[in-house]
Specification:
Blueprint: H1 33-39, H2 48-53, H3 56-62, H4 77-91, H5 104-113, E1 122-126, H6 131-144, E2 149-152, E3 164-166, E4 169-170, H7 173-193, H8 200-214, E5 219-223, E6 238-243, H9 251-254, H10 258-265, E7 274-277, H11 282-294, E8 298-301, E9 307-314, E10 317-323, E11 328-334, H12 339-355, H13 368-376, E12 385-388, E13 392-395, H14 401-414, E14 419-424, H15 432-439, E15 445-448, H16 459-470, E16 475-477, H17 481-493, E17 501-506, H18 509-518
Parallel strand pairs: 1-5, 1-6, 2-5, 6-7, 7-8, 13-17, 14-15, 14-17, 15-16
Antiparallel strand pairs: 2-3, 3-4, 9-10, 10-11, 12-13
Helix pairs in contact: 1-4, 4-7, 5-7, 5-8, 6-12, 6-13, 7-8, 10-11, 14-15, 15-16
């Protein structure tokens, strides 16, 4: 199946992680406060015991965990206790959803720490959807070329240690604890002299930069938490700035149009950088290009300087031909589903080429076998991730309409379910109507539920919206996520063992993370 021509400058929102996925997989950049706090010794929520232990029935049917880079709790009781203490201390700070548009505190902390973020070059990534998947692809490519990498992404699916990776794997619990304790006295110094204490995200960001400098890494791949200009990660000077597709999300903080949101996100473009732009809405593209000119940056645009030449559905993913800044890369297997992931791959490839000077200093391609090997090894947990068979259960972190539309298209293309049952648990501050409308054409029924966090929308309120879209006969309410999963699997099994029915769990990174635990992916 061929994609749009490379010179097609259409003005849709483009593909994209976590979002069109995400992950802001950052659009959900909220630490699962209730879950993590309770794990760390706080008052447990009614569902927490079930979420932590998992449903025996679901676990028995879920199959063994895969090597996907999502760590479980430490096996050593003492290490687990120490990690819980750190989690408790971090959870006591401002959550990621409470923002102060200032870099003052994090800059003060970087000064005291000796500017660790300047010890290595960086590729800095912003956008609305697709950031985490793109970051993981960039990391895989750089690692395949024998560079030591550090990757910082958010939010985490299950463990806070996922956010900081070295050489393609999350740092272990011991190193996470050690890094926190190392910077803790300096964090306290900043806390003592500022009006507000450093936030959870600011401290984690500082931990990542310190861990990367200590490793040391050859290059850091850094995903913003939210926006760009005032994001804590913006103390880093990215030699390559990547902007994944921009769409409407966090409109109360970032703006109500793609152009306004792009103004905030364009703040990561630094003087003389190379800017890699995914396809964008027209008003967002104009803002990003204007900022690039002001910063004397070099721009590479998807659909112009690079892009997807062709793609075909393949077993376990898709087969791509990509055009990079230096030429074509045929027969690239990507073990992820959906057109949006193909476009994320094109963006990631262009970013790595730009980092190596291809397109400016060098007119050549990267070694094709190395590129193929890197893409073939990419994983992106919680992004159209299959966690069970018979019936097939798929997890996807779509949490806004653009992400939901991409997921719906990809599920239809890659799986061909005869009947698909949705399990939706969304955050109350999201465009849940737009999300449900995007899924309505592919869901035979929808089970609405909630995750364990305070941000989760009340299931009855979510059901009221769902009934308006699906009709009452297609909507079922299950307040507990474990019950919702069982109900959806039961509905899918009504079709019979060989029917081709499936379940899609979606609506929030937080919902997906808890579903992974319930389904045994821990």
């Amino acid at each position: 199946m061929s994609e749009r021509p490379l010179n097609d400058e259409n003005d849709d929102t483009g593909p994209g992680e976590d979002d069109r996925f995400a992950e802001i997989v950052d659009a959900e950049t909220d630490l699962p406060q209730a879950l993590d706090s309770a794990r760390a010794g706080g008052t447990p929520t009614p569902d927490l015991a079930v979420i932590e232990a998992g449903s025996r029935t679901l676990r028995a049917q879920g199959g063994p965990p895969q090597g996907d880079g999502v760590p479980s709790r430490p096996a050593d009781p003492e290490v687990d206790r120490a990690l819980r203490e750190v989690e408790t201390e971090l959870a006591g700070r401002w959550p990621e959803t409470k923002l102060d548009p200032s870099l003052r505190r994090v800059e003060a902390l970087m000064d005291i720490l000796g500017q660790p973020q300047r010890a290595y070059p960086a590729i800095h990534i912003t956008g609305t959807n697709g950031k985490t998947s793109t970051a993981r692809m960039i990391e895989a490519l750089l690692g395949a070329f024998d560079l030591r990498t550090g990757r910082y992404t958010s939010p985490h699916v299950q463990s806070v240690t996922e956010r900081i990776s070295l050489d393609g794997a999350p740092i272990d619990a011991e190193r996470f604890i050690e890094t926190y304790r190392d910077i803790q006295p300096y964090v306290q110094m900043v806390d003592d002299r500022e009006e507000h204490r450093l936030s959870f995200f600011e401290v984690i960001t500082a931990m990542a930069f310190a861990a990367f400098a200590d490793a040391p890494v050859d290059v850091a791949v850094v995903e913003v938490g939210m926006g760009g200009t005032w994001d804590a990660t913006n103390v880093v000077d990215g030699t390559v700035a990547v902007v994944t597709p921009i769409s409407l999300d966090h409109t109360d903080r970032l703006g109500t149009t793609p152009g306004e949101i792009a103004g905030e996100k364009s703040g990561i473009v630094k003087q003389g950088a190379t800017v890699v732009l995914a396809q964008q809405p027209v008003d967002a593209a104009q803002v990003l290009l204007k900022r690039s000119v002001e910063a004397d940056a070099t721009v590479a645009r998807e659909g112009m300087e690079f892009g997807v030449v062709s793609r075909e559905v393949a077993v376990g993913g898709q087969l791509l031909t990509l055009r990079g800044l230096g030429g074509e890369y045929p027969d690239v297997f990507l073990p992820l589903y959906g057109a949006h992931q193909a476009h994320n791959a094109a963006v990631a490839l262009a970013a790595v080429e730009a980092f190596f000077g291809i397109g400016s200093e060098h007119a050549r391609t990267l070694d094709i076998d190395t590129v193929r090997r890197a893409f073939a090894a990419v994983t992106s947990p919680g992004r159209l991730e299959v966690v069970r068979r018979s019936p097939t259960v798929v997890l996807d972190a779509a949490h806004n309409p653009a992400g939901a539309a991409a997921a719906a298209e990809a599920v239809t293309e890659a799986f061909g379910f005869s009947r698909l049952v949705g399990v939706v648990g969304a955050s109350a501050d999201k465009d849940v109507r737009g999300l449900l409308e995007a899924f309505e054409p592919i869901f035979a029924e929808v089970v609405v539920t909630r995750n364990s966090t305070a941000r989760s929308m009340d299931p009855d309120d979510l059901a009221a919206v769902a009934v308006e879209i699906f009709g009452s006969e297609r909507v079922q309410v299950e307040p507990r996520l474990d019950d919702a999963l069982e109900a959806a699997i039961t509905l899918a099994e009504e079709e019979g063992e060989f029917s081709g029915a499936g379940v899609l769990v979606t609506g929030s990174v937080l919902t997906v993370g808890e579903a992974r635990l319930l389904l045994g992916r821990d």
